[in-house]
Amino acid sequence: MADAGEVVRAANIAVPHGFLDAAQSDARQLSLAIGEAEPVFVEQVHSATAICVDRPFKDAARPQVDAMATATPGLALAVVTADCAPVLLADSQAGVIGAAHAGWRGAQGGVIADVVERMEELGAARANIAAAIGPTIAKASYEVGADMRAAFDPQDFDLFEATGPDKWHFDLEAYVVRQLAAAGIESVCPLGLDTYADKPRFHSYRRATHLGEPTTGRQISLIALPG
Fold first, then answer.
1. Fold for domain 17-133+174-224?
2. What is the reported pTM?
């Protein structure tokens, strides 16, 4: 694995945050991203469910959800990914943040809309929410079958590019951008980082499966409210 590089941040998010790469799992790199905040993890299950949180969870008590929102200072919301899209959100004026793990099933099911609603419950305003999409599998690397394409509304067929009989390339990042726009989020920063293509830098579940390698590696993405 390559040495860890600099923590990647999005210019439109004004609170501590970071999209870490495959090598950035140590305490120093976490601290560079979120300072003294305490990370909050959940058990991600590719759902469309978001919750409000005000404390970390013990490992055995992590709820099975795929997005979180908080207005509690001193917390950092964390998601782990290895091809799915990590989405970090913040209304810095209201002091409310959110984080979502958005695979195609969760995004299609409404996880983006749900986390925005949870942020609103805590005092955020949609017009003030900025969002960033971290490392995710890119369209050129994401070949899917006709059965997956058929699960989408025809209005989203423009995100699929035919590559052969019953084979398509799907643009997950663009789909998440579309879901954010549908939720009323105007400030969106897609980083355009391809987990599949950049093996030295990122874990990729699909790439590892294709190569017959272990599929347990994950990147961490975090966003924090200073204490």
1. CNF1/YfiH-like putative cysteine hydrolases (3.60.140)
2. 0.96
